[in-house]
Amino acid sequence: xxxxxxxxxxxxxxxxxxxxxxxxxxxxxxxxxxxxxxxxxxxxxxxxxxxxxxxxxxxxxxxxxxxxxxxxxxxxxxxxxxxxxxxxxxxxxxxxxxxxxxxxxxxxxxxx
Length: 112
Fold this sequence. Notes:
mainly alpha
């Protein structure tokens, strides 16, 4: 009889420890769930921020490309004009040089 009572007390004690352990596990589970929720919220917030930063970066890059594209076009036009002016000057100088050479040849022939 004494040993049966002792076993019942042990079983009661084990049930209490089991219930206590289950309760502790539930509390830990809730705590971890709360942490997971906070991490998910933080992750979503950071992901949104990253998308905003990427969008701004793309916008700035587009603006820069547009601006420098325009500047590049202007510079290319100036370079083309300079080349044209250069070529025209060279042509004028060459034709003037040819005239001078012809005149000199003409003088030599007339002297001879």
